[in-house]
DNA sequence: ATCATTTGGTTTATACTATAAACCGATTTA
DNA sequence: TAAATCGGTTTATAGTATAAACCAAATGAT
């Protein structure tokens, strides 16, 4: 049986990736609201996705406020699709 | 966003449930081979599924050898289907 | 007959993970 | 000025997955 990429087999990271698959970019606040997660948890999981090269993270400013913008990378896209394929084996459906 | 049932959101438990969804019953050895897991890990995860009421476990004999037979329960079936539905949200593939 | 190996598991130790609480510096509001 | 809010990060902790170590019974080898 194919392995389920453990980096993606996590509720919050999967939710983040799912959002980023369907949008050009998303900032920290938007992701926190969309995934209904706490800022702490989100921060940690974004770091892991970034460390894996699955997303890019850019910190900038809007006026005087910081803004953290995330995008999925090509590698992240591939990994997500592979994860979905592997999952299909486990579910025997979809 | 719907929660992903943490009892099912585990690689091995999900694999076990997936097998049991498609077969009338399965014994320990078959599950170990089919899921390519170690006996220790499988034993622990079967207990958890049993404790949750998702599977039944019957220990008997074939000749002089012990045989542990598992079956998915109605509750397990429901939980599995709900898990799949929730997952679809995360994967955006309705 | 006895020693070693295999079979079918269970228990236990460990390393990893997810998560929220606590925190921080800057900014806005009172 | 003080207090509350915003946008996060760091850290402490509980929970989880996993394999290693173990066990008792059965089988195989000498």
Q: In words, what does this structure look like?
A:
- Two copies of one chain form a homodimer.
- The first copy, chain A, has one domain: Orthogonal Bundle (Arc Repressor Mutant, subunit A).
- Helices cover 53% and strands 19% of the residues of chain A.
- Chain A is built from four helices and three strands, in the order αβααββα.
- Chain A has a three-stranded antiparallel sheet.
- In chain A, β2 and β3 form a beta hairpin.
- The model of chain A has no long low-confidence stretch (mean pLDDT 92).
- At the A-B interface, α1 and α4 of A face α1 and α4 of B.
- Chain A binds a DNA duplex (30 and 30 nucleotides) through α2, α3 and β3.
Name the descriptors.
three-stranded antiparallel β-sheet, DNA-binding, 94 residues, Arc Repressor Mutant, subunit A, homodimer, alpha+beta
